[in-house]
Amino acid sequence: MDKSLAEPNSSIKYQTNIKHQDATTLIRFAFECGEKGFTCDEWEIKSGKPHQTASARVFDLASSRIILLTKDKRATRSKRKAGVYRIDPEIGSEKEAYSLFLKWTAAAPRSRSRSEAIVLSGIKNYIESYRSAPDADQIALDKLKKIILKEMG
């Protein structure tokens, strides 16, 4: 066993291992929720993770298109409406989803530009989830999408 994975002070390998462990658990949870989907708040409760950690994993999987933000909303513990996520229906198994997650993390640059790419990817996913906007909004969304796609290469 690589001791660096067991040592909390060996930051990058250790954190990556924890990130992948959290992603695996979230993928399993997303499959368990099925068509009903889940909110980030529900994932926080299930995982026992603080909001910052839980929402980061949800964002990672949404950015990698493994889970998709739907138009549905559901009340959180604080009675606010939250977006509902579902596993991408084209993904057939937990194993396939985790394989896609590993490919996505391996392909992402390891610098500040990675953060920018993740944000752009998140915006792109958000825009694609609201394609049925009224015509005026659709034109603006299409222009923004072209800009984002150009920036993402």
Structure description:
- Strand 1 and strand 2 form a beta hairpin.
- The model is unreliable at 1-16 (pLDDT under 50).
- The protein has seven helices and two strands, in the order ααααββααα.
- With 153 residues, the chain is mainly alpha-helical.
- The protein has helices at residues 3-6, 11-33, 40-47, 51-63, 94-107, 112-129, 135-152; strands at 67-75, 81-87.
- The chain has two domains: 1-107, Arc Repressor Mutant, subunit A (Orthogonal Bundle); 109-153.
- It has a two-stranded antiparallel sheet with strand order 1-2.
Quick description:
The chain is mainly alpha-helical. The chain has helices spanning 3-6, 11-33, 40-47, 51-63, 94-107, 112-129, 135-152, and strands at 67-75, 81-87.
List the helices and strands and how they pair.
Blueprint: H1 3-6, H2 11-33, H3 40-47, H4 51-63, E1 67-75, E2 81-87, H5 94-107, H6 112-129, H7 135-152
Antiparallel strand pairs: 1-2
Helix pairs in contact: 2-4, 2-5, 3-4, 4-6, 6-7
Q: What is the CATH architecture assignment of the largest domain?
A: Orthogonal Bundle
The DSSP helix count reads: 7
The first-to-last residue Cα distance is: 38 Å
Q: The biggest beta sheet, please?
A: 2 strands, antiparallel
Tally of structural domains: 2
Radius of gyration over C-alpha positions, nearest whole angstrom:
17 Å
Helix proportion: 55-70%
What is the level 1 CATH name of the largest domain? Mainly Alpha
Beta-strand residue percentage: 5-15%
Per the CATH scheme, the topology name of the largest domain is Arc Repressor Mutant, subunit A
Global morphology: globular
Q: What is the overall pLDDT average? A: 77
